[in-house]
Design goal:
129 residues; mainly alpha; elongated
Length: 129
């Protein structure tokens, strides 16, 4: 079954928007599936007959109102995709900050009785001289 340009564009727009919503709302349990769905939808554009150029040609052949609707959907999907990249970058920064904070407050990050940084399992940061 061949996918129509409308189906391809709507699938991408929905998947990328769902990922954006998931990231904005910080719904971590749904994040993995939203990322996979967005990736699959974006890959499906490449698999459209003729690839991206074929999709563009198919959109150009649509009547004016439908062509404008599809172009608008693609523009919104592009914006959502860019925002998703920024939201993922910010989430990674937040995660790194939380990990650093947790490590600093961990009992394993304290000094041992010998003055070296303890790693809980008996290792030392610089070893003994």
């Amino acid at each position: 079954m061949q996918v129509t340009p409308q189906q391809a564009v709507e699938q991408v727009a929905q998947a990328v928007h769902r990922l954006r919503t998931t990231l904005e709302q910080n719904h971590l349990p749904e994040l993995e599936q939203a990322v996979l769905d967005a990736q699959a939808a974006l890959r499906s554009l490449e698999l459209f007959p003729g690839g991206i150029d074929g999709l563009r040609a198919s959109i150009d052949q649509q009547d004016s109102p439908e062509r404008e609707r599809l172009v608008d959907l693609l523009a919104q999907a592009k914006l959502d995709h860019q925002l998703n990249s920024e939201l993922i970058r910010l989430a990674m920064q937040r995660n790194a900050a939380l990990q650093a904070y947790a490590a600093q407050n961990s009992a394993a990050a304290t000094y041992s009785s010998e003055g070296a940084v303890s790693f809980g399992a008996g290792g030392q940061l610089l070893g003994k001289f």
